[in-house]
Amino acid sequence: VIREKTGLKHLIGKDGRVTGAALSDGSVIDLDFAVVGIGVAPNDQLAKEAGLEVANGIVVDEFARTSDPAIFAAGDCAALPWQGGRIRLESVQNAVDQAEAAAAVIAGGNEPYAPKPWFWSDQYDVKLQIAGFNLGYDETLLRPGTREGAHSVWYFREGMLIAVDAINDAKAYVTGKKLLESGTNPDKSILADPSADLKSLLV
Question: Which domains are seen in the chain, by residue range?
């Protein structure tokens, strides 16, 4: 069970072992054991010592330049411009793509880096594939997949598609990724109809 809109307040223990978790919404969960996953802070210490601007990572522009135009940063540590804000994209795909874009600028190019985020994770028999970045969504559409246990969540902001989360649904992921990369907004009536073929959205 995934619980949203709450967080861990503290773990509860007795006789040297964990027995429960108190959550910030006031509820308590009984536990036999706990697996703790902690966040990772960007390593921007060297950048700070060099006098570069940092804000939850090394601040870069759309060309991967830092506040010192002779210094570039790319990858998980770089806080890059994104749709009027600033984010860090912690993925291998972004690290490679942004580094290639930075190298091209260093070599004399002037093409800004426009990230096209995608992520994936295998959790036992569940494959999670994500296209886009769902930051700031105001509407979602849940679509069942064509096989048991498969479904996708489509995220919209002001009517425009911004991301797709696909669970064991490669077709939804591939379709969503192509739509996002082409800037095509899908017909929601087709998405909402589980009998409709997603390929029709790409025509």
Answer: 1-38 (no CATH), 45-106 (3.50.50.60), 118-202 (3.30.390.30)
